[in-house]
Amino acid sequence: MNISVIGTGYVGLVTGTCFAETGNMVTCVDIDEKKVKKLSSGKVTIYEPGLEKIFERNEKEGRLKFTTSLEEGIKDARIVFLALPTPPGEDGSADLSYVLGVSKNIGTLLQKGDYKIIIDKSTVPVGTADKVHDNILSKLRARNISNPEELFDVVSNPEFLREGVAVEDFMKPNRVIIGTSSERAKKLLGELYAPFVRQGNPVIYMDERSAELTKYAANSFLATKISFMNEISQLCERLGADVDMVRRGMGSDERIGKRFLFPGIGYGGSCFPKDVQALANSAKQADYEFKILEAVMKVNENQKKHLLPKIYSYFNNNLKGKRIALWGLAFKPNTDDIREAPALKLIKELTAAGATISAYDPEAMANVKREIGDKIIYAGNQYQALEEADALLIATEWSEFRTPDFIKIKSLLKKPVIFDGRNLFELYQMEERGFYYVSIGRKTVELK
Ligand code: NAD
User: Fold this and answer.
1) pTM for the full model?
2) Separation of 292 CA from ligand 1 center, angstroms?
3) Model confidence at 448, in pLDDT bands (50, 70, 90)?
4) Which domains does the chain have, with CATH numbers?
5) Which of 38, 108, 119, 199 has its CA 20 to 30 A from that of 75?
6) Which ligand 1 atom is the nearest neighbour of the CA of 121?
7) 159 in ligand 1 pocket by Cβ < 6 Å?
């Protein structure tokens, strides 16, 4: 099938590459000329495990092309995916200007006799498919095209991939949600997704509005689950319980499940914060106060700052001249994405209090440098970051931080002090190794 993907960011590039991998001809469109140039020269623009290999293969075999021209991009396509940004607007609602702007442009380009399916893959509020439909239709009517309704269908097909395992998620999705009332679109999309659900994972067909809401409901539920656990971790600290034990005890109940129960320094990333906010805003517009979501947002903001008072108190409320090593900048491991990363908040607060930060992240340092420049020191590796530092702070649970050389850490830090926002280490081991160790929802290990 000929496919076009408009917007070649995290979702667009993975979507385009994975569809090419199953034999489709894919053209990706982006307005960012630098990005298109880099992709056209055979280089991937994001870090995502497994992506580079299949990108190179499909690019070489001519199944994956890139352009800045929407006209050229959609010319031969039967299916057009919109993988455009939907950032939060000032009031927290999803900014639909990218999606609606492109849909108008598509309306000026559709040609008689050339049926296309336009698919919202971006995360968009309920009613967006209708708006996209109306935009295209009004442009076709303005061009006096006869029977314009027959020229296209608009489908909601939200994306559930997780950054860090995006290729795996796309190639073997837990489920595919297709929101449409068009039989023609249903049939074509069923064929397109068939290679991805061979193991029997469901393709769930529904109406457009339910599909749009499903995506927000899923992300908001996961954000709620994390926030609930973060609240439990606060209680653990106050009541002398160990959140790791509570988590294991709870998670073994099949009704609850083991995943998304890890407490930490708050969720971040390009999706959870904006999607929770957008759903709460949609609820408000529908004259409904979604009380749980309001609480989730508050809990998460507090959780991002949870370690700060502990750091201040350790240094007697004086961070001037102190150097803190920071392991992890990305909002989660296996990605270079730093959107809404808790590490950025910590950097802001700690540098404002007078501390120097020497940071290391396996993939995200270039993105942080682009955003905050030389406000912090960028170390060549995780141990270099520790040199002359007064403490180590861990903000992202990259695998390589899980079993570090503790003897080396001790020899490089001025004092063996670790603030761990991701509970990477066992308390008894930190006690044996002689560290002052602060984590989330567990007792502080004191220096003997
Ligand atoms: P992104 O910012 O990484 O990518 C968006 C791309 O669109 C950018 O490359 C940008 O240059 C391009 N763009 C902007 N305007 C354009 C235009 N007029 N024409 C062509 N290209 C244009 O965003 P993303 O993370 O890929 O997210 C896209 C959508 O998918 C969002 O709605 C997001 O909520 C949703 N989503 C994201 C994820 C994720 O993990 N990142 C997962 C599921 C769903």
Assistant:
1) 0.94
2) 27
3) confident
4) 2-206 (3.40.50.720), 216-298 (1.10.1040.10), 308-438 (3.40.50.720)
5) 38
6) 30
7) yes
